[in-house]
Design goal:
This protein has helices at about 5-35, 50-55, 60-90, 100-105, 115-125, 130-140, 155-180, 185-190, 195-210, 210-225, 230-235, 245-255, 260-290. By secondary structure, it is mainly alpha-helical.
Length: about 290
């Protein structure tokens, strides 16, 4: 079986997966970058126009609206989803009767397609047919019946809440896996030393989960930047494009107005922002945590 250990044969085994990765991941990135420098509209030959699509971004009001909405969702994911998923992971790590069922219920929203989640939450948040507003009106609190989606202000916050609900089980599961890797002897030693629950969390659990925090943070930020189906299903970017996020605005410019070159410039912008955020966070987190 010596032939299995040679680098040449390892490369041969990797070639099928590597070919698929290059064809469907790497090549489309370079094709996207190329079209972002053209005025391609879906048909005909693209003409090279340099950085015109990129300079246009900075004068596009709808683009800045999409950035603002995406930023709101990113901040909600970072400052609400991350701590909540950690707390939920701590709760799920407790050995209690029926905890297996609880874990399944917590994780279940993550296996539902985002487009279906959007349909479900329309019946909760829609200002006309939604459960929330109907309940508020039925108990005489009409003034609290707001435009949760489809309005000018609350839509990105509502989408952020739906996103958190849909993925919190997945992120909590990652924390749970990290918690289960901590040796029980460490917990026992901390109890003997008289550590309180909060001291254990702050000085033992969190430092030992530094890699788990890094993984979860990068996943949360990158997935929040990729939100698409929820917005398309719940608001379709309306009204008047006020609820667009970066991905839906890229789709709108590419396939609705047929401005393929401009849409590809937005896609490249998303790629660059996601890469900068991810790599910067990983480097800073590893540098600042001495454990």
């Amino acid at each position: 079986m010596h032939w299995l250990s040679t680098k040449r044969n390892m490369l041969i085994f990797l070639l099928p997966a590597l070919s698929v990765y290059v064809m469907y991941i790497i090549a489309p990135i370079f094709i996207t970058i190329f079209y972002s420098f053209t005025d391609f509209r879906g048909i005909g030959n693209p003409d090279f126009i340099g950085f015109s699509n990129y300079t246009r971004l900075f004068s596009d009001k709808l683009f800045f609206i999409a950035i603002k909405n995406t930023g709101i969702i990113l901040l909600m994911a970072l400052f609400i989803l991350l701590p909540l998923s950690f707390i939920l992971g701590l709760m799920l790590s407790k050995a209690m009767k029926g905890m297996t069922v609880v874990k399944a219920l917590v994780f279940s929203p993550n296996v539902i397609a985002p487009i279906i989640i959007g349909v479900i939450w329309i019946y909760v948040l829609d200002p006309h047919i939604g459960v929330i507003n109907n309940i508020l009106k039925s108990i005489g609190l009409d003034q609290l019946a707001l435009d949760w989606i489809g309005g000018k202000t609350l839509t990105p916050y509502s989408i952020g809440v739906v996103y958190i609900w849909s993925v919190i089980g997945f992120n909590a599961t990652i924390f749970l896996a990290g918690l289960q890797m901590i040796p029980k002897e460490i917990y026992e030693a901390s109890h003997i030393d008289g550590s309180s629950g909060m001291q254990m969390i702050l000085h033992i659990i969190i430092p030992m989960l530094k890699d788990t925090f890094i993984i979860n943070t990068v996943l949360i930020l990158s997935n929040a930047l990729k939100i698409f189906e929820l917005v398309i299903q719940m608001t379709a970017g309306g009204p008047n494009n006020l609820s667009q996020v970066l991905n839906t605005y890229m789709y709108y410019r590419t396939f609705t107005t047929n401005e393929y070159g401009y849409g590809m410039a937005i896609a490249v912008f998303i790629l660059v922002v996601a890469s900068i955020i991810s790599f910067s966070y990983i480097q800073n987190a590893r540098r600042k945590m001495p454990y």
